[in-house]
Amino acid sequence: MALIRTKGLVIKEVYVDDADKIITLMTEDIGKISVSARGARKNGRQAYGTQILTYGQYILYKGRNSYSLNGCDILTSFFDLANDLERFTYAAHMMELASDACTDDQTTGRVLNLLLHGLNALNKGREPMLISSAFSMKLAQVCGYPPHVTSCANCHTKELETIYFSFKKCGFICEVCAKNDGDALPVTIGTAKAILHVLCSDQAGVFSFNLSSENLERFSDISNRYIAERFDKRYEKLNYLKEIRQVSYHLGGE
């Protein structure tokens, strides 16, 4: 078996028995892979190095059809996010999106880099809805689905005094075209600037902005729906978070 060194993030761990686990590793150079970690639940270093939300240097044996863990060193752990239900839920949502985006080795490396920047922002206490929404919008661009934002996506006029976001046309449309698109959402200047910032920034700068509560809600609605439609999948984790908030709100009002 060949010995391989790679850096990667643990995005999933499954316990096999009392001693072993299988992890899903998103790597910088060999794609998204499944790794058998024998004894990892009892070996101190490997136990921590194979926890979800751990970014590390991994030494792997590559067999004919599988990988197995030989050793690991932790570079960064985002596991403390698990102590906060809201932040952990957003982190889990981002990891699910990232996993779905890993279609080839080259894309996986870019997605991993973006995900690490996003998790780092979450870990520093940034607004989780903003971080997750910005991640979703940038991820769509990384995967080749950037929304059209330089003119009206329908008639191509650059005179956009009032802006709408069209999911049918995948981008900004003007007020005239919006009259024939009942599904389009009105976009404030603040929300439009946020979308432009995310698309025009490099991955390190994607999350360096703030939004008012009203603009953030609309930015989140657009980003979450846009990425879900591009990936053709319903993402339920954030709905779970909304349900928890509603229950907490009603309990608090009693």
Automatic annotation (TrEMBL):
Stored Gene3D superfamilies: Nucleic acid-binding proteins, Recombination protein O, C-terminal domain, Recombination protein O, zinc-binding domain
All residue ranges annotated as the DNA replication/recombination mediator RecO N-terminal domain in the record: 1-78
GO BP terms: DNA recombination; double-strand break repair
Domain of life: Bacteria
InterPro entries (UniProt xref): ARFGAP/RecO (IPR037278), DNA_rep/recomb_RecO_N (IPR022572), NA-bd_OB-fold (IPR012340), RecO (IPR003717), RecO_C (IPR042242)
A Gene Ontology term for the protein's cellular component: bacterial nucleoid
Keyword DNA damage on entry: yes
Pfam families with a match to the protein in the record: RecO_C, RecO_N
Entry similarity comment: Belongs to the RecO family.
Known function: Involved in DNA repair and RecF pathway recombination.
Name recorded for this polypeptide: DNA repair protein RecO
Organism: Thermoclostridium caenicola
Lineage: Bacteria, Bacillati, Bacillota, Clostridia, Eubacteriales
